[in-house]
Amino acid sequence: MRKLRLRCPAKLNLHLEVLGRRPDGYHELRTVYQTIALCDDLEVEESADGFRLAVAGDDSVPAGEGNLVLRAARALSDAFPGGIPGARFRLRKRIPAEAGLGGGSSDAAAALAALATLYRIPRGALRGVAASVGSDVPLFLFGGTLLGTGRGERIRRLGDLPRLGVVLLVPSWPCPTRQVFAALPPLTPPRGRPKIRPLLRNLAAGRPARLRNDLEAAVLGLGHDLGALRAFLEETGALAVGMSGSGSTAFGLYPDLRTARARVRRTGVRGTRLLVTEFLERDVPGTAFAPA
Fold it and tell me: What is the pLDDT of residue 186?
């Protein structure tokens, strides 16, 4: 039986606007995604007896039908004429769950890419299946710096940013996405659309930048102390500080990985996990956006 191993990178939201509620109940978004080098690992092996998943590294992540890996596999099998006989998945988690980093979505994208390779399914068929599994799943089929619109599932590539260093502060309190969106304060019609290009130019040149995430107000409204995380990162001289997705992770950006490691050697906030990584560009071998 053939076997593949893929890295499943996390993502940051460098910009996130909530434009309003859609008729389907979701919210219309405009966001800039950036993949980073913090990765889960997924091993996928051909099988003739259905889909099975084993998970290691995080006891809170389900190995059953609630896992997006299995949901993605079954969705692809349903969409592919004749179906897929099966696969065995072994997932090692390193990306914190319910932290706004897209770990589950990245795992699902890797599962789709691996199955497409093993069963000779055109990669062009994956995008629609990915969007049906989750709003963040399609971005992990591309990687790098991306613009997301719609629910976040409509993806357009932007010019990749340099390999900036990243410090992640992951607090002990999770932020379930549905709970955060439910806590959004009333939305007011936007006065013009914020320009994204100046933000990208500043980051590309290593200049300070101001990041926007409209979900921060909801996280603060739930009583979470996001301010302490931001204040700590600002004191380290980060080029930019933000919150990823619907939280709970706060992050700081630095000129490179070495600078990030030198500036932040401890968490500074009790009950918070510190992770240091860097931007991950598109077309990296061994990922869903460049299968091995």
Answer: 82
Provide the 10 A C-beta neighbour count for residue 181: 16
Active site residue 195: no
- Ordered by where they begin, the domains of the chain are 3-157 (3.30.230.10), 165-278 (3.30.70.890)
**Percent helix, strand and coil across the chain, each to the nearest 5:** 25, 30, 40
Among 40, 41, 107, 136, the one annotated catalytic: 136
Q: What is the pTM of this model?
A: 0.95
Classified as helix, coil or strand, 88 is: strand
pLDDT tens for residues 247-271? 899 999 999 999 999 999 888 888 8
**For residue 234, what is the enclosing H or E element?**
helix 226-235
Task: Respond yes or no: is residue 136 known to be catalytic.
Answer: yes
| pLDDT at residue 194, as a whole number | 80
Rounded CA separation 86/88 (Å): 7
Instruction: In whole angstroms, give the CA distance from residue 70 to residue 88.
Output: 10
pLDDT digits (tens, 9 = 90+) for 90-118: 999 999 998 999 999 999 999 999 999 99
- Residue 160 confidence (pLDDT) above 60: yes
Q: How far apart are CA 65 and CA 129, in angstroms?
A: 17
Residue that is written with structure tokens 């006065």 in the block: 191
Of the candidates 250, 184, 276, 259, the residue with the CA atom closest to the CA atom of residue 12? 250
Point out the catalytic residue in the list 11, 40, 107, 160. 11
CA–CA distance, 77 with 81 (Å, rounded to integer)? 8
Q: State yes or no: pLDDT of 207 exceeds 90.
A: yes
